[in-house]
Amino acid sequence: MSELSNHPVFYLHTLNPLQSVLLTIVHQLPTILDMPLDIIPITVDPETLFRMEQSSQPLVVYDCKLQGAPCGTCVEGTTNAMSAHLRRHGITGPDSAITTCTWSGCYKNFKKGSMARHILTHLRVKVRCSVCGVVKCRHDLLRAHIKSSESCHLAIADNVPGPGGYVIAPMSWAAAHMHQV
């Protein structure tokens, strides 16, 4: 959880799949009972909420910054979550189709199949080798490292969140981990 400690932490109370209210708990959980809690309404992508509830683990979400059709939704910083979110913005069709990135005014052209991975570069999300700690900007580059390194061949990819994300955690996780912090 050390990578998450640089982000504000939120505990999620779902009002419905599209609208969520987050309770802000900044950095230190031990003081939660002694500090006032600010209620900040944000909208979290419904598939992200579902994944979080199914895994019972915290996730890092980021504000959607696609221009032209701002949705005001926070989405998880993974290629799968971003691909699903892009489809909700109408970015569909074959992976070979050319599309333009409008994340925060980027306007670079990419194949649709590469767009989600490209957006993760805007979020500065990275992956780390669980054995040697090397950090790469993309999963495919880390897979190549793991494949080529004898000592890392059993490694897994640990996500390294980018700045500007929000950590959301289901209440079940918060209750189970409150005494460990």
How are strands sequenced across the largest beta sheet? 1-2-3-5-4-11
Oligomer: single chain
**Kindly, what is the distance between the CA atoms of the first and last residues, rounded to a whole number of angstroms?**
10 Å
Instruction: Supply Rg.
Output: 18 Å
Compute the number of helices: 5
Q: Can you walk through the features of this model?
A:
The structure is a single chain. With 181 residues, the protein is of the alpha+beta class. The protein is 27% helix and 27% strand. The chain is built from five helices and eleven strands, in the order βββαββαββαββαββα. Strands 1-2-3-5-4-11 form a six-stranded mixed beta barrel. Strands 9-8-10 form a three-stranded antiparallel β-sheet, with helices on one face. A two-stranded antiparallel ribbon has the order 6-7. A hairpin with an 8-residue loop joins strand 6 and strand 7. Helix 2 crosses helix 3. About 19% of the residues have low confidence.
Short characterization:
The protein is about 25% helix and about 25% strand.
SSE layout and pairings?
Blueprint: E1 9-14, E2 20-25, E3 38-44, H1 46-55, E4 59-63, E5 73-76, H2 79-88, E6 98-100, E7 109-111, H3 112-123, E8 126-129, E9 135-136, H4 139-148, E10 157-160, E11 166-170, H5 171-177
Parallel strand pairs: 1-11, 3-5
Antiparallel strand pairs: 1-2, 2-3, 4-5, 4-11, 6-7, 8-9, 8-10
Helix pairs in contact: 2-3
